[in-house]
Design brief:
The chain is an all-beta fold and 187 residues long. The chain is built from no helices and 16 strands. The chain has a five-stranded mixed beta sheet with strand order 1-6-7-8-9, with no helix packed on it. It has a four-stranded mixed beta sheet with strand order 2-4-5-3, with no helix packed on it.
Length: 187
Amino acid sequence: MTSLTAEFPFPHTWSAEILPVRPVILPARHFVYPLQVEEVERGALEVLVRPEGVAPFLATCALGFRDPIVPTGVWSTPNPREICAIAGGYAYLIDTEKPSKFTMLPYRPVLQVHPAVEAGLLLYVGHHTILAWGEEGEAWQSPKLSDEGVSAVAIEGHTLHGIGWKMISDKEFPFTLDLRNGALINP
């Protein structure tokens, strides 16, 4: 698996520990993400989550890809009760107070994760677009930004600057997004 990341840019009501392997004795509360367990056979990210005022639980998150280009780790989100666990580019947003409630992001894989704290968003970069996650869940998805890969992402307040690639011209081009709504500022 790739190197593990733990980033907590947003306030949160839980603590988390990435375990090197699944415990021999599982805790009383153990949740597997996604629910189809055959994906876990390829590998998994094991995270022991300790929410405030609720019993701890083990989150077993199925591994997407074993490529070092995709992220693996845990992040805080704009919702203080949610944890984001990414295993080889497969992203799971888990309600730490009700761990059976989770969302698996449609990006397979997520290639980059960027907190935009001032905008109150956690940004997930895919091959073609960016998905923004706010306190209430999915905030927006950008228009197509690249034919194959978004790079050089920089965030300044409510603005994101990046570089995309157009297949027809075989050239990279800069773009700017408004983080309030995901719209291109310089289309």
